[in-house]
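I am still getting used to backbone structure tokens and would like to learn alongside you. Would you supply a protein for us yourself, any chain you care to pick? Start from the sequence, derive the backbone structure tokens from it, and show both lines together. Go ahead whenever you are ready, and we will take it from there.
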Amino acid sequence: MNVLQSMIIAFSMYSKLPMPHIAWQEKNMKYAMCFFPMVGIVIGICEYALGSWILGRDYGVLFFSACMTLLPILLTGGIHLDGFMDTSDALASYGEREKKLAILKDSHTGAFAVLGLGVYLIWSLAMWSEVRPEMLPVLAAGAVLSRALSGFSVVTFPAAREDGLGKTFQDGSQKRKTRIAMCIYAAAAAVWMVIQRPVSGVAALLCAAGTFGYYAWMSRKQFGGMTGDLAGYFLQICELAILSGVVLVG
């Protein structure tokens, strides 16, 4: 029962899918992060289904790319995009570590968050406009891989501060078991990508690995560790990097 409650917590936190209300307690927080990539599985299935349906009909390219850009935002409620915007603001401040962390907690939206969001959405639209039907299985798996890597960072990287959502999930998780689960998800997504389209799959994996390396370096150097916002920032740029890699190699 605690495992089922952990899954409900993960879907309630990281998606807008209707879920029963579950009180957050230590016993049901242990494995919540283990189900984070399962949200990616649902998103990936929806991306594949919607993308295949639209591409199989006489709709315009802009309609397709707009739907594919908006779909994960609608399914997640924009929780990770919020982290992307906050982190964009913090990085653009070029302030001391304490100032950057304060910006992450600030509920106000700065100019660089808006600029970053605009650039992100325009690039996403451009990349999705070049997607062909055979690329969709690889891109769908990217939603799983990005969450597996993000979840791995939450239970592995040092926390930048002693409060916040990232710290809550980090402290409440069974770290060793969660790391193993994240590695299994990531490996399964990687194998699926390469089997579906070897060249595109390898390109996607290289983009994800490069993005994760940057995230590990940046989070430690700029913020002193991981936060929930930084994990969301990574997830967004990882998915965009995977999309770009798949499109650019054809």
Summary: The radius of gyration is 18 Å.
